[in-house]
């Protein structure tokens, strides 16, 4: 059914939904049609093509996204004020989706990755915010992607490099930043696809500044320090503090008894796992002093009455064994009358 270019007025009548076998519906370029897309459109299970573009429609009920077998949907150039919901991921068969030139707000839902047959996606000239979801990289059939003239920000996902059939992309007039991907289809795109953004960088042919390599290296070094070196240093400091605290408390309670206990302890004494388990009540949480990135410290009471701090390393972590070696070396070299010797 096609009733386009007829200067129709008013709203779309719900009686259309009585045509159960309707497969294609074109109500386009009737600038006077306004209001809501009838809710019953979600029941037109035989519908394969729906073109309602170039009208003054203001609302679409989410039931429309339940048409799992529809192939083409064009609602562009209207006055739609909706937010894209996760239900849009139900359009499993759709190959063409054009929602451009509306007032659609909110973010692009990750559920859009469910449209595995989608070839053309146009969300341009709306009020979309947020980042471009990484999940767009799973739309393996995509050939055309237009997200221009929105308020999108953040990085361009590297996942888009895997869209081998992508021939056209337009991300201009947003607030994107960071490096423009250079692999896959991005080798063929021009500067027009990325102009008028916040702070993009990359290849000179795209008419953007080169990305700062020094900044990137510095960033990587900071990340390594925060993730690897800093946790080890914090663990060492915590262990030393706990030992110092325990020794100081025992001296207050028992005077010189600690010195006698320490002097009576063999310097090369071997303590079994069973004895440590008994001393900490099976490493019970009630004896937990501190928990770090690479292990935990428990308070233990040996059979001879000596209070010890037991460090349990998590060797399943990649840096667990390295942390163990570094901490042992550091504590072995410590010398102070208020610090307990390493057993």
TrEMBL record:
<comment type="similarity">
    <text>Belongs to the RLP family.</text>
</comment>
<keyword id="KW-0325">Glycoprotein</keyword>
<dbReference type="Pfam" id="PF13855">
    <property type="entry name" value="LRR_8"/>
</dbReference>
<keyword id="KW-0812">Transmembrane</keyword>
<keyword id="KW-1133">Transmembrane helix</keyword>
<protein>
    <recommendedName>
        <fullName>Protein kinase domain-containing protein</fullName>
    </recommendedName>
</protein>
<dbReference type="GO" id="GO:0016020">
    <property type="term" value="C:membrane"/>
</dbReference>
<dbReference type="InterPro" id="IPR011009">
    <property type="entry name" value="Kinase-like_dom_sf"/>
</dbReference>
<dbReference type="InterPro" id="IPR003591">
    <property type="entry name" value="Leu-rich_rpt_typical-subtyp"/>
</dbReference>
<feature type="transmembrane region" description="Helical">
    <location>
        <begin position="224"/>
        <end position="247"/>
    </location>
</feature>
<dbReference type="InterPro" id="IPR001611">
    <property type="entry name" value="Leu-rich_rpt"/>
</dbReference>
<feature type="domain" description="Protein kinase">
    <location>
        <begin position="283"/>
        <end position="343"/>
    </location>
</feature>
<dbReference type="Pfam" id="PF00560">
    <property type="entry name" value="LRR_1"/>
</dbReference>
<keyword id="KW-0472">Membrane</keyword>
<dbReference type="GO" id="GO:0005524">
    <property type="term" value="F:ATP binding"/>
</dbReference>
<dbReference type="InterPro" id="IPR032675">
    <property type="entry name" value="LRR_dom_sf"/>
</dbReference>
<dbReference type="InterPro" id="IPR000719">
    <property type="entry name" value="Prot_kinase_dom"/>
</dbReference>
<dbReference type="InterPro" id="IPR051809">
    <property type="entry name" value="Plant_receptor-like_S/T_kinase"/>
</dbReference>
<dbReference type="GO" id="GO:0004672">
    <property type="term" value="F:protein kinase activity"/>
</dbReference>
<keyword id="KW-0677">Repeat</keyword>
<keyword id="KW-0433">Leucine-rich repeat</keyword>
């Amino acid at each position: 059914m096609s009733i386009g270019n007829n200067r129709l007025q008013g709203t779309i009548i719900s009686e259309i939904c009585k045509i159960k076998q309707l497969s294609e519906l074109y109500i386009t370029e009737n600038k006077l049609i306004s209001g809501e897309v009838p809710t019953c459109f979600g029941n037109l299970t035989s519908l394969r093509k729906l073109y309602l573009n170039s009208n003054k429609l203001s609302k679409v009920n989410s039931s429309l996204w339940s048409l799992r077998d529809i192939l083409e949907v064009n609602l562009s150039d209207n006055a739609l004020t909706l937010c894209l919901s996760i239900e849009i991921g139900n359009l499993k068969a759709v190959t063409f989706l054009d929602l451009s030139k509306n007032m659609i707000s909110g973010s692009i839902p990750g559920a859009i990755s469910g449209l595995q047959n989608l070839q053309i996606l146009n969300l341009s000239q709306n009020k979309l915010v947020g980042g471009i979801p990484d999940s767009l990289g799973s739309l393996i059939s995509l050939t055309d992607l237009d997200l221009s003239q929105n308020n999108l920000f953040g990085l361009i996902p590297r996942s888009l490099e895997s869209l081998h059939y992508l021939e056209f992309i337009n991300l201009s007039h947003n607030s994107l930043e960071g490096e423009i991907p250079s692999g896959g289809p991005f080798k063929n795109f021009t500067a027009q696809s990325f102009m008028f953004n916040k702070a993009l960088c990359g290849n000179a042919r795209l008419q953007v500044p080169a990305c700062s390599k020094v900044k990137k290296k510095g960033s990587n070094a900071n990340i390594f320090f925060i993730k690897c070196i800093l946790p080890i240093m914090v663990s060492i400091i915590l262990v030393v503090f706990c030992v110092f605290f325990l020794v100081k408390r025992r001296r207050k309670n028992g005077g010189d008894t600690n010195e006698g206990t320490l002097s009576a302890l063999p310097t090369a004494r071997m303590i079994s796992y069973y004895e440590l388990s008994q001393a900490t009540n099976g490493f019970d949480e009630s004896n937990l002093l501190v928990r770090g990135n690479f292990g935990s410290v428990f308070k233990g009471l040996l059979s001879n009455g000596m209070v010890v701090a037991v460090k349990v390393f998590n060797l399943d972590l990649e840096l667990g064994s390295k942390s163990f070696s570094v901490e042992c070396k550091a504590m072995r070299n410590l010398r102070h009358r208020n610090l307990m010797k390493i057993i």
